[in-house]
Amino acid sequence: MSQPTERNRLDGEASPYLQQHADNPVNWQPWGDEAFERAQEHDVPVFVSIGYSSCHWCHVMAEESFEDESVAALLNEEFVSIKVDREERPDVDSTFMTVCQLVTGGGGWPLSAWCTPEGRPFYVGTYFPPEPRRNQPGFRDLCERIADSWSDPEQREEMRRRADQWAESARDELESVPTPDATGPDGEDAAGPAGDDLLDTAAAAALRGYDEEHGGFGSGGAKFPMPGRIDLLMRAYAGRGRDALLSAATGTLDGMARGGMYDQIGGGFHRYAVDREWTVPHFEKMLYDNAELPMAYLDGYRLAGDPAYARVASESLAFLDRELRHEGSGFFSTLDARSRPPAGRGGDDGEGDVEGAFYVWTPEEVDAVLDEPAASLAKERYGIRAGGNFERGTTVPTIAASVEELAADRDLSPEAVREILTEARTELFDAREERPRPARDEKVLASWNGRAISAFARAGSALGETYAEIAREALDFCRERLYDADRETGALARRWLDGDVRGPGYLDDYAFLARGALDTYAATGDPEPLGFALDLADALVDEFHDADDGTIYFTRDLDGEARDGSGDAGGETADAGPLIARPQEFTDRSTPSSLGVAAETLALLDGFRTDGEFREIAERVVRTHADRIRGSPLEHASLVRAVDLVETGGIEVTVAADAVPDDWRETLGERYLPGALVAPRPATDADLDEWLDRLGMAEAPPIWAGRDAVDGEPTAYVCEGFTCSPPRTDLDAALSWLETRESSE
Fold first, then answer.
1. Maximum distance among all alpha carbons in the chain?
2. In 3D, which of 288, 168, 172 has the Cα closest to residue 225?
3. In what order do the strands lie in the sheet with 723-724?
4. Taking the model in full, what pTM does it have?
5. Nearest alpha carbon to residue 290 among 268, 272, 261, 267
6. What is the chain's mean pLDDT, rounded?
7. What is the DSSP letter of 386?
8. Given a cut of 80, is residue 27 above it in pLDDT?
9. What is d(CA 640, CA 633) in angstroms, rounded to the nearest whole number?
């Protein structure tokens, strides 16, 4: 029998992750119809391997198995092997990950799945070692057993039955919407969720899982950043004043900022910590983490008043600007965890890439950079000692000693120690810049850029206008390179990579970028980003909203193609391949739920419409999924925020002025107003008419109508709970109206 595939075809793919595997002896195929047609033609199963370019264990499995000639020969003879970049094909990743979680109770990357030629998985897992280890089968042995089973007609039939069952379970999970008898008249849910109760319930659940000793959630094993949970805790504290809620939020912020998950020398966050104490991270740096976490730290600064939180946010955004920003102002995706060690630590004798090599230190390396007393202070401050806390005697820097402790030990003033450490940190950073650098994945993803744009825009009022300018430049980059209103496959593409555009976009691309555009308008007072946000929202509704089901799907649906593994479920492109479900993204994971962000963004943008359509869709979505949200609100943080906004109306601050005064921007930037929509408009209705013409609006929307400046002075209109304050020319007085309302409730 001839091999089902003739060669590795990844050399024609732009994805950095796929390019990493283009030289493997495995005959990898990109995901698409052609690969599955090959499998059907040769009657062989399909092996699907899903990962991303900075994934540590993806690298490990490649080196152990995919670069092995004998393993490659087995895969090439018995399977069609497909490589998937999860960042380019989140729809494929979502469906396979759902199967993995349903079947094994866990998941992660690399994600490994063996499928029928029609694309239905019958065996799933994550990383497999080359030889059996700790109750894990060896990868080669597993492939041989699967190939043998497939060649046996009875076993093959059982594998197909299992694949059908798993596909059905995945569809039940991903496409779940209530049956008609679960809704009231006109399709409305009989009992929608109560926003306050959901917020309190979710925060209470977060509090129960809080690690009081080290911060974060869970007390064993790896610790992941969970900015959605931190946000829920802060919102609940603001509403209820329960100190334990704020302590859990700030304790988590403190734990992450002190540990090795935060880059103490260069700023920015690594992916997650492998231990309870936040000491040793997985070293990849992701755009989304360094967008989500600064927003959490900025809110912590606003709520708790600790300037250290503003510093962490500023340093993390500075990292993005410095190391993950394209010269044209969009943001790249990731930095790898691995790089060649520096000279003196193996890098000068041809050693290959090592995890964390760029970020860790030895005492000797510090001594080579700094003189005394800076060297001793820096080593004690960052816990850099002989033996280290990581591999090969190296140390991941953490905050091991406070400035006050160091000052007391040396009979110095805290100010003097702080000055020495500031200079020492700069010198260590400069020295580190000379080391071999981790590889960078230079995909510009619409969704992740949307979150980064929101982070920079929201930092603008708190940290300075330059942040808002960066947000605007990144937004313009995405609009110019990824957006085309006339594109047949969808207005927004998924990614740009060195001029190559791949798409179309998914729900997270539209929702996150629309929210980023809205935040940019709020930060700059320029109506053009608002117009883009409204255009994206219109396209989102057209392409992803299903009025009959009362939900917003993650993928487009062209003419309702089959979702049974025999057709193009997402309707994305000609090479979409067979998807077993049309997913919805309910829960917050490493990024927020796109369904939750979409509903919240539509509800916010409804104030700029006169027909109420966006609010109606948002209301229907949260009603549709009310039982799911009520059942586990902590896992649905973004949907809980959407529920809260839909039910309460949220906070709106309309500012009528020729330009928002600087002190007003500062006040709005420092005040904790969770989920507030700041809506600048011109001072006069005559100038507003010019905006309306630019935006193609026939009349002023509710958030601007009748809200002009009083006596030519900048004027604020503050609304909450569908009730508005009188116009005020004093912003503090306008915001005090909120406090009066809260104290009276």
1. 86
2. 288
3. 677-681, 651-656, 715-720, 723-724
4. 0.94
5. 268
6. 93
7. T
8. yes
9. 6
